[in-house]
Amino acid sequence: MDRRTVLKGLAGAGGLALTGLSAPAIAQGAAARTLRFVPQANLANFDPIWGTQYVVRNAAALVWDTLYGVDAKLQPQRQMVESEETSDDGRIWTFKLRPGLKFHDGEPVLSKDVVASLARWAARDPMGLMILAIQQELTPVDDRTFKWVLKQPFPKMLYALAKNNAPCSFIMPERIAKTDPFKQITEYVGSGPMKFAKSEWVPGAKSVFEKFADYVPRQEKASWLAGGKQILVDRVEWLVMPDPATAAAALQNGEVDWWENPIADLVPVLKKNKNISVDIGDPLGNIGSFRMNHLFAPFNDVRARRAVLMALSQEDYMRAIVGDDDALWKSLPGFFTPDTPLYSEMGGEILKGKRDFDAAKKLLAESGYSGQPVTCLVAQDQPITKAMGDVTADLLKKLGMNVDFVATDWGTVGSRRAQKTPPGQGGWNMFHTWHAGADCINPAPYTAIRANGDKAWFGWPNSPNAEKEVTAWFDAKNLDEEKAAVGRLNKAALDDVVYAPTGFFLSYTAWRKNVSGITKGPLPFFWGVSKTA
Amino acid sequence: MLSYILRRIVATLPVMAIVALFVFSLLYIAPGDPAVVIAGDQASPEDVERIRQSLGLDRPFLVQFGSWVWRILHGDLGTSIFTNLPVSTMIGQRLGPTLSLMVVTLLLTIVVAVPLGVVAAWKAGSFIDRAIMGFAVFGFSLPVFVVGYMLAYIFALELEWLPVQGYTPLNQGFWPWLENLILPAIALGCVYIALVARITRAAMLEVLQQDYIRTARAKGLGQGGILFIHALKNAAVPIVTVIGIGIALLIGGAVVTESVFAIPGLGRLTIDAILRRDYPVIQGIVLLFSFVYVLVNLMIDVTYTLVDPRIRY
Q: Which H, E and C letters describe chain B, residue by residue?
């Protein structure tokens, strides 16, 4: 008899068991067929087109399938599609669906469903919008075939349909996909390998996914979002734990099986536990960033922006975020994800070597800066932005700048950064954020690198040179041309300081040793994951 | 009595109206925009604006307030901006865990704090009294989350007696339900126990000086009977008052406790809603909490008549 049993016995002796309600007996087998997972954030909504948060995308990848999926080599591979054809002039794409695809309600997946889904996705996705701008028509040909006719070629079509950046082009039944893309869907029927148990959904606490028995996986080996998505458990429970210490304790105690992103401070504790495995979760990592407002002084002058870049120490930022674990960060003299095909350091000298404060101060003085307050927005409820904000405040003070440090929460930063009013009137000079490395592998999903003035992301950088190279990448015919364009883009964006990259950092994922099949990737992949009792 | 209760219930309406106006105004002027959170980092300003329009957040303050009040009058708390679920459903999902936590904490408090206070008063000035009051100071001083972490470390991680986190509904068994609540209830109850124990001691000290207590002793009544039947009943009014007021403490403490122990209750729902600026949910919860608080005060007033027959309304 163990202590727990004794305690139960005591409670029983105290009359506590007189209610007639008994504890459920969960069979060992049933427990082993349920995978309990702690996600990075709360699944607060479940429309992957309407809400583009990563956690929604991650859950949606279980429930909805895509026409193509990107693999671990970042190449698009067929998923729901059996074959595709392109016309000689590259304007007409004809796709044929795999046979036997079914939605969770038992209905077959038809090309009309695909057409409606793509139309909804295209209205919200940056690449989708580019396709829409040159679209002539998108129509079903028969139940399994559909055609996308464009006014001009779009060489990145398959990448657009395969990419893992939110929003992904998930395929939904036509009746659901016809929902206004700016309104939320209310039915969660997909054709992916798992069904969403809506009745068990407690937003902020728990989401449950059940194996879809009629799912037909591809025959190829699974690789990220491509290949055979074999589900080896009956049920996946996502348990939201807002407190990292609680998640760590629950993993150690065996109350959960997999924790998506343990914070760096708790990783040493987990590594010491013989029942827990810890490894890098997403090899594409994240890129730290602080953005300067190009509309107002002092950062409307490129010399002021370059002065900050000259003095910026990426090591300071990275250590503030990940601590002393050198396996978790590297310096990044550029904007693109390290170890991916288009990575470039062209023009990155300004971020390399010893920091030159004297030269930076001189350049800042030349820009005309004369001590006006610099409004620096720092979200305190996000450990990453808080850490970066503290380093930035120190950096600016060392440069002799007058820092107006606005400590606030992420919700307020999100709203205030959209203000184009001067900093003293509700606007801002700089804010901190970070970008998933998966979004920075090429210019297509990389909103933050765009520098088209008013249409650019917050800070509204205007760099015709950078924009020219974005266009060159879209028009590139092969990988060499793409690499050349991205190299030039990297240099132009650094010359004009579209934003300040603060370094590249990774994070861990941790799981119990009775769980196997976990692979590294930009999102947690549940196919191929199994669990023993 | 019945007419008094009815009058008090009717009197809650203006209180609720003021709370509603206050909460709505506060949220309206607070910085932050749910559309920005929904749209995500990659969204364009145009996307954010379209989402704002679809949510009706671009309408003037009075129009938004009017439509909200109209829905409330029809018993509709609205729909969450993020989950698209009715606020009443979301509150319903979270009510059980919070109510369970509060009930267990309340019972624990009464069972532990009242006897402690009585014993401290009985042994006033002794080592036992000082030890109990020392514990009370300790309970007051430690933040809930510190107690929570300590308890989880000792009783869940080291001893493996109890789970670290989570909540099991009562219909899945009494012990599974209770084992998830023991540590959170102790953590949450520490301050409460300290408060009630101190008040009980003070009230008992005063009563124990009364002539009728001396008479009871002179008649040879046992110590237990004197303390728990005669003295405690006459000291009950301030104790009941502080137990009632303490429910506000519990509501506040539940927010932290539920986060530390990952209990899917109203406290966590409140925090999540505030961080995301999910206005309908925040408004619904604040209205609920203010209603509960008014109701608890009413129950305290009614309880007075039970413990002291001289009180009449």
A: CHHHHHHHHHHHHHHHHHHHHHHHHHHHHCCCCHHHHHHCCCCCHHHHHHHHHHHCCCCCHHHHHHHHHHHHHCCCCCECCCCCCEHHHHHHHHHHHHHHHHHHHHHHHHHHHHHHHHHHHHCCCCHHHHHHHHHHHHHHHCCHHHHHHHHHHHHHHHCCCCCCCCCCCHHHCHHHHHHCCHHHHHHHHHHHHHHHHHHHHHHHHHHHCCHHHHHHHHCCCCHHHHHHHHHHHHCHHHHHHHHHHHHHHHHHHHHHHHHHCCCCCHHHHHHHHHHHCCHHHHHHHHHHHHHHHHHHHHHHHHHHHHHCCCCCC
